[in-house]
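User: Predict the structure for this protein chain, please.
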Amino acid sequence: MKDVLGIVKEYLEQNGFGGLCNVDFQCGCPSDDLAPCGEYFGRCEPGYKRQPDETCQCEIEPGDFCICKVKSNEQTGS
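Assistant: Here is the predicted structure, written as structure tokens:
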């Protein structure tokens, strides 16, 4: 039987998402490493793995990625 994180991971992968994000805290985690912080993730939302820009901000190391609610800035009309 799968645990909750396993069920969430399966849903994300089947629906084309790259992980979970929480815009209130500007954090995200990829589907292969869900909730590494060990915190409550009930307010996290499905997101897409992408490079940050004005529509998606996160603290990352150079060359890394963010998990954002929108796939790209083209979807927001920016």
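The mean pLDDT is 82.
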